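Lab meeting minutes (informal)
Scribe: AK
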Amino acid sequence: MAKQLDTVIKLQIQAGKATPAPPIGPALGQHGVNIMEFCKAYNDMTKDKGGVIVPVEIYVFKDKSFELKLKTPPVAVLIKAALKIKSGSPRPNTKIVGTLTKQQVDDIVETKMEDLNANTQEAASRIIEGSARSMGVKVRR
């Protein structure tokens, strides 16, 4: 018999660095999840990802057990990593902070494709390019 789902919690945590401190502790505690068990499981699953932010969906069941589903890092994090910049532009339309090449966009699409709401590579590329433009990053085609 399948377990009965109680709730789904979505968090973005740095890989390998989950601790019971806020925001993780309160988010899990209110649903009765064993926080230390979660931290240990998450850190074990993400220890090879090197400190990148990795979103996680936590499926909490009625018996307070849980399952983790890791997602790919956010597009903004991947763009910043590709360009080696600290943040996007404070004024995206006027101040450009970098330029992405078509190859870099394709690399990000390859990494992120499973979590994007796109059916084709071209549609996924357009999603990534839009995110880049909103960060003040020019895209070279």
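Next up, CB showed the second protein from the same session:
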Amino acid sequence: MQTYPLSQLTEETLNTLITLHEVDGDLEAWRKMQMSLTQEERILLEYFKSDRHRYHLPIMNEATIWGRAIYPLLRLAEQGQVQAWASVPLKATYPTFELEGEADGALAPSVGGRIEPPYLIVHEAKRGINAPNPQFQLYGEMLAAAWLNWENSPNTEQEIFGCYTITDDWTFVRGVVGAIETEKPTLHIEFSPRYDGVWEAECIVQILKSIVAKYVNVST
């Protein structure tokens, strides 16, 4: 069985491993996935936005952008045992292939300081003309996370959320993985609109909170 590094996945490779279906999501559905913020969260978000204007993110390296523009918004979506994580190892063994690598980040539950199977994956895209398309590595990371979730709860279909960021722009992805135990699993993908990390920061946190609440409500 061949192991595929997540960082090297391409559209061609994925199409040999899975049946992929991509659509633009219903804009109204994404608008409805927005939980209200608490007063404390609004205060922290306003500080984040005012602080963000001090920095020239387009010329900063990826690690700095992650620390200043991405991770703070993930932190605001934490609820219950669900925490924001960085550098999340992922490994999944499907019937005919293996996926292995590391996601830039995730929102996932913590038990005793250990991460439990992630269900929202964050991929920070590399920049530059020759940078790879971030979507296909994200799909691989979502497939790996869905398999980990399936091990805990072997439902026929696994709903999995992800997002990719380019500088401080965010695009969310809803995925449904099916036929996990077959030779060619399926992955249905729906895209959100693109959200600006400053002017639409509130929408970003509201969507993140809504995704986290799906897990919290199921677990309680």
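CB comment: The chain has six helices and nine strands.
No objections, moving on.
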